[in-house]
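Field reference: sequence -> structure
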Amino acid sequence: MSKEMITALDILEKEKGIKKEVIVEALEAALVSAFKRNYGQAQNVEVEFNDRKGDIHVYAVKKVVEEVEDDQLEVSLADALMINRAYELDDEIRFEVTPKNFGRIAAQTAKQVIMQRVREAERGVIYEKYGQYEDEIVTGEVSHRDNRYVYVDLGGVEAVMAKSDQIPGEQYEPHDHIKVYITKVENNGKGPQIFASRTDSGLLKRLFEQEVPEVYDGTVEIMSIAREAGDRAKIAVRSNDPDIDAVGTCVGAKGQRVQTIVNELHGENMDIIEWKEDPAEYIANALKPSEVIDVLFNEEDENYCMVIVPDYQLSLAIGRRGQNARLAAKLVNFKIDIKSETDASEYAEEEDSEESTEETAE
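Structure field:
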């Protein structure tokens, strides 16, 4: 080892931001392992790296005992006193055991340690950079795909998008530029791993923030989102300014604002409804475009309600394959039982009949 090593450590600290002390500590630990591996030594050793001269020294550390049982780990008190009269039992003494050819092994080990630390530092920089993008939208370029993921180049690092995060029907071809929502950034043994999504509700929220200034600045607030990606979504919004219409603001003049989002999501339909503090009003809004006659709540189950709609609007309230009812229930976090006006009347008559029977029996 030489002063070239010191120069290299100084450059790494300046260019990569890796502190010299960190590398020296890792190097000393690695050299202990290298010494034991190459010289078949089981003794307790320490390696000392002089970060001014670049010299390396190996020391065997032995404990002072009355009677030696293992001469690789222990030294007798009598021998210790011959070295220095101040030594006592249980003291530790370091004996230099640096092999003559240890410099070559040390150089190889140092190279491996430095390369590893550089990789770790680069991973740390990537993690720090993209960790701040978690829960945000970024634009990337599709690089390739396999059976598990679509890989999106974010500029020097790839994000992975699992099948569950890909919008059904969307095709992702190399060099396509797409907006993705970063759901999670992990820093594991393989380095930073970035997970992206096109189906997460967070993507929709961020798109509205981009297109609607009032949502971005908090004047209009997105209260809830229910989404079946690629097909349809319901968004509940409210205004924190009585002079601003939350729904109209999100839709935009001639529907321009919401249409930009629909286009970005390749035709995903958007139902923007007004959030209401009153659960009955909120549920009625959530089932639009269907009309709602009444919303009845169950005292025994606070998350259940029966919604009565006009007979001719039952299919509209339920929606194609039950989608409208399903999204509405998810949006308001209620179990919704939709009944037509006729069915609701018959149901009420049956309930009354059962109650009468029970009273008669009593």
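Note: The chain is about 40% helix and 30% strand.
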